[in-house]
Design a protein that fits this description.
The complex is a heterodimer of chains A (156) and B (162).
Chain A (H helix, E strand, L loop, with lengths): L17 H17 L31 E6 L5 E3 L2 E3 L1 H21 L7 E9 L5 H14 L1 E9 L5
Parallel strand pairs in A: 1-4, 4-5
Antiparallel strand pairs in A: 1-2, 2-3
Chain B lengths: L17 H17 L7 E7 L28 E8 L5 E6 L2 E3 L2 H15 L5 E6 L5 H13 L4 E6 L6
Parallel strand pairs in B: 2-5, 5-6
Antiparallel strand pairs in B: 2-3, 3-4
Helix pairs in contact in B: 2-3
Classes of the chains: A alpha/beta (156), B alpha/beta (162).
Chain lengths: 156, 162
């Protein structure tokens, strides 16, 4: 009986890599289009659990001039991971408004109402009263545009 | 002299080295998979609270009139009044003088009301006690904004903050 010689051109096994490459390139394109560098959402703090409001609609893009603050479940203002008491938070709003007002004055703009958008990430277990008073405090300092952050659905 | 070569047999195969190409593709794929972060499911509720005194009606004069196309003075400012349970959930809900059972019927009423206003901005004053949970208030604001309310003013029960 004759044995087949290994490696002869007639029975060489050839792997067709073209479909594999197609799939890989498509996956790369998919991930490239969804890539988002940076690991943290602006103003995100682990102590704040956002409320779920499925009825919310996606808003327009936020402007560059924005101020992100959070309110924890105890109703305290959280700014850059620092928790402020009510007195300090009133002072903080005033300071933030003053900095922006001075900058607008220097540029020759109207300083009465600030164009800054205050992005508020309040905990779902905070009370309406706390959030309303924080907004009123900001409003008294000159901020008029606010964005409340909510979740579309529960986060996994 | 003939310039053409005569073809003999099959054309010579040009080998294409796929292996380094595949290596690079897999490395790129691994990189993107490892750095992939699913898009955030966060949404925003935009509020415009002017620093000047707002021209919204004071409680209890503001009432929701029955929508009528013949009414030239159709009210464009409505009050959504909320009573809260001791646990901070919504106890009962009123749009003007009309009791509303839940958020979906509030949305339906507001949408209907807005359609008869034919382009006029509809403004809402949300009047709720301070003990109401923020999550419930956020749902109310989201419902109002989905119904096409142009601005929502937040106020406490019986008091009107700036």
């Amino acid at each position: 009986m004759r044995r087949k010689v290994r490696g002869s051109s007639s029975d060489r096994f050839e792997l067709n890599l073209t479909p594999l490459l197609d799939v890989v390139l498509q996956l790369i394109t998919f991930f490239m289009m969804l890539v988002h560098f940076g690991s943290r959402i602006e103003g995100q703090t682990p102590s704040v659990h956002l409320p779920i409001a499925a009825a919310a609609l996606p808003g327009a893009d936020l402007g560059l001039d924005r101020l992100v603050v959070a309110i924890d479940r105890e109703g305290r203002l959280v700014v850059a991971d620092a928790v402020l008491d009510p007195v300090a938070s009133a002072r903080w709003w005033g300071d933030q408004a003053k900095v922006r007002r001075d900058a607008r004055k220097a540029l020759g703009g109207n300083a009465s109402e600030l164009p800054t958008t205050v992005v508020l990430r309040a905990d779902k277990d905070a009370t309406y009263g706390v959030v309303r008073k924080a907004l009123a405090q900001a409003q008294r300092s000159g901020f008029a545009r606010f964005s409340l952050i909510v979740l579309r659905e529960d986060q996994p | 002299m003939s310039l053409r070569r005569k073809r003999t047999g099959l054309p010579e195969e040009v080998p294409f080295p796929v292996t380094p190409f595949l290596d690079m593709a897999f490395q790129l794929l691994a990189f993107f998979i490892l750095t992939f972060r699913p898009p955030s499911n966060e949404l925003r509720l935009d509020l415009y609270l002017p620093t000047a005194a707002a021209a919204l009606p004071q409680w209890p004069q503001a009432t929701a009139k029955a929508p009528s196309l013949d009414d030239p003075d159709l009210e464009t400012d409505l009050v959504v009044a909320v009573r809260a349970n001791p646990d901070g959930s919504i106890g009962n809900l009123k749009l003007g003088d009309t009791a509303v059972t839940d958020l979906s019927s509030l949305e339906a009423r507001l949408t209907r009301y807005r359609s008869v206003l034919s382009g006029q901005p509809l403004r809402i004053r949300l009047e709720a006690p301070d003990i109401l949970r923020y999550e419930e208030a956020a749902k109310l604001i989201a419902t109002c904004s989905r119904a096409g309310v142009s601005s929502v003013k937040l106020s406490g029960r019986g008091e009107d903050l700036p």
